[in-house]
Write the structure tokens for this entry.
Amino acid sequence: MDNETVNTGAADKKKRIFSGVQPSGNITLGNYLGAIKNWVALQDEYECIYAMMDMHTITVRQTPAELRKRTLELLALYIACGIDPEKCILFIQSQNSAHAELGWVLDCYTYMGELQRMTQFKDKSARHADNINAGLFTYPVLMAADILLYQTDYVPVGIDQMQHIEICRDIAQRFNALYGNVFTIPEGLLVKSGAKIMSLQEPTKKMSKSDPNPKAFISMMDDFGSIAKKIKSAVTDSEGVIEYRPEDDTKAGINNLISIMAAVTGKKPEEIVSEYSGQGYGTFKSDVAEAVVEAVRPIRGEYDRIIKDKEYLRGVYRNGAETAHRIADRTLKKVYKKVGFVID
Ligand code: TYM
């Protein structure tokens, strides 16, 4: 894909991809294996737009200077993971006002009952009982706006975001039913292995960057010694048998380590199981630790180099915002016209 095609968007017949990560904390191995790694694989075949979702991040209180810093760090990490700014559009959500604008319109086409059913809202309002703000409630509507603005075909995410993709589809279908074919109906895209990486300490819970226990998650910024140590001390079971039984919660710890190994090596879980048949958890954990460290090592090398080059990063996100705005504005104008706003 050449630059010109990406920049105009119009002549390009490739299907379009949109996705993003919140710069809300340590980017985890779960974010990488469930989403970012897949984005890299998709960038040659599709027209890809990836953003740093800072507007979603303020639904939970943030320290402003840290949010700004983490947004740039996330961009550097995207690039370090292999996302090529020459092939993809990379931008900061808050630098494209169309997201908030479409978000408002879509708020008026989304029902309270639908939003009340969202599991992320229920989880986050339980965790932040002192700050159950309206933004947290309408979060999925802003996410729908993110996706629909770009006439997105596919949204590569982890399993935890699939409910948000579903509501996005419902909102788009409702809008289209009223006004004609305004939005492309997007589909979620999951990786085969790694779409739900679990906590290393409570393996029936997903690995989360907001987990208060740092041993439960691997940050892409952890030093290699800590990564190895966290994997070696991952909670498993007392059965001592390396078997992949995704439906069996008593095997959740081992299932998770097998999924991680499968995601970093590209092997199937069954291959890994037969490779380690008859071996103990100790050996397996050491090998998983080594494989993860070797996957993270080159990313970290690149990251350390890119994060120093603030001018380069600025060029990438400014350029990205301009292109993103141009594409998004076409959809926004169409929507404004449909709902009856004066647009000329
Ligand atoms: P966020 O920032 O929580 O996570 C970013 C991506 O990482 C995936 N992910 C995981 N995958 C596997 N295992 C895990 N343990 C794990 N934890 C997280 C998430 O599924 C996601 O793909 N609401 C989104 C951000 C967003 C967005 C969007 C995404 C805002 N607008 C539009 C796609 C399209 C979120 O909070 O992701």
